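Handoff note, outgoing to incoming analyst
You'll be picking up this chain. Sequence as last confirmed:
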Amino acid sequence: MNSADYLRGLRLHLLPLPRKVREEVLREVSSHLNEARTRGGESLVSETLERFGPPSKLALNYIRIWGVSTTFLLSVGALGFILGLLSAPLKLSFFGLVPPPPAPSLLYLLLLLLLVSISYRYGLKTGLVMGLLGGAGYISNVLLTYDLYKDWTTFTYSDIYSLTFNTVLLPAAGAVLGYLGERFWEIDIEMEGQV
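Most recent structure output, in case you need it:
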């Protein structure tokens, strides 16, 4: 991989960072590569790129140091809300012609999978925001569904339990996984320092 490809990949992986930080990181890495090129040509550039490691790993280290941008948090939160809104089982969406499925919807499972992945990778704050807004979307779906069809008489204790469980599960999962991700980052950094 040449330095231009590396910087292109790094720019892509740095998207969660605030714009000014992202530009500063790219300038810093670019200056190291230019210095290596001046001192030892392309062979020293290749060695420098090898020491940096893959662009995704270098970017993740910077994200762990600087945190994610507000725009990224809002984007992840919006994704969580939309998936939560679309994923709650719609008991009345088929006008009573089809019974509700016994298993969670595929979109709900996708929301959980994304929540696990994003929380663990980007930390506590990101996981909590996505989980809270995913839970809010789930609540909104259930409440809108019942309100649209004016069928509150079918809202049972099991529905209340399911609603409570799912709206608590999403933020809790996001927070716990984000916290664990941050702890493993520290262990990973300590282990790299010992090698």
